[in-house]
Write a structure and sequence with these properties.
By secondary structure, the chain is mostly beta strands. The strands form eight sheets. Strands 9, 10, 13, 14 and 15 form a five-stranded antiparallel β-sheet that branches. The two termini are about 20 Å apart.
Length: about 425
Amino acid sequence: MAEFVSGDDILTPDKLAYGSRVLEFSTLGTKVVIASREYSQKANSDKIDLFLYDLETRNTTQLTRATWGTRSVHPTLLASNIYEPEHPDFVTFLRSGKLFLISLSGGESYEASNEPLSIQSYRIFRDVHQELQAIVEMEVFPTLSPSETVTKDQQIASEEGSGMHFNKLMLRHWDSWNTYHKRNHLFLKPFTMECDGTMRLDNDSPAVDLMFGLETDCSMKGPGGGGAADYAISSDGKYIAMSCRRFDAATGKQPADFAWTTDIPIYLAPLDEARHNVGPPKPLPWQIVSDTNARVYNTNPVFSPNNEYIAFISMTRPQYESDRGRISLYHIASQRLWNLTEDIDLSFATLKWDPMDNRVLFALAGYRASQRLFRLRINDDYSFVEDISVLEGDESRMDFDIAILPSASGDDGYGASSSSSAA
């Protein structure tokens, strides 16, 4: 920022708007991949490129060179070698609704997906058999496949007239009409290694709709939707957790009063069920793990490093969107649920576990007129927070994603950082 304020020059809104800024990043081992946005007044457009930063050598490499109007977003570092999980050799990212890969050993990025619909978010993981899989989010009609959704979209577009028929609220949800009831669903898709050494989503394996028939969205639509933050996969590939509006387990339909409630539970399901699904499509056996009797807002599920616990942000007052965000903890084996931060006068958001400690959480909260990063240590029996400290250096008033980075000094094994999640 020094070049903006040196000499007689002053910092102006234009210079803030047109400068490059980090939007999001992903870490694995000693590598960090960064998505950086640049705006051009002359082109009246922006572009988002990816950069690779090495924490050991401190070298930065530009991975993509976008033209104006092209955006490479949601980067993830990927290790294709099962025996070297901390040594990434690929970067995955989304561009124009398609999944792309680029090798860290050099070469151009290439399209790794061939889905008929736009991919809105994704997560990559290894299943219980140590095979690479992807969870991709696509908008479909609840009981139709992606290809069948494309066909129905074309049929609707070809029909005459522009009238719309509504039989329940909400008529309009944020920026879209709620007429045809298309929903954001999560699909399971395996990766395959091609003969030429490239990795792609397997075109021979149809995408499995983990939410088939459910009239709900994950990620949630509108400005409140969290994208990939609305769902999480355990590191052993056994479970998936998601945050979405409540649905009837028998019919898949949402309650009639969903338009004026904040009833958004945390659901948990065994992922391996999708591999053994024979016969007609059906959803995973989703079970609510948040308070089943409290029709309140819950979000941001994250698994502990040992995959025994799920932490998430929860509220306690129904129909109140501005309630304080507490941190709740759910023990998968015992099905025990409790609130960790009821007595802490902070409203938390954007939650992450320390990958090296099952009893340490990092979370953001408003503190003294700024958004600050907190470190919370849970006691031995996981019943309460025994220590909480605010980390220095984060004075921004924006919303952030949290990443836990390997410590450059090597003293404590990690460092905490944050990156803006909005343009």
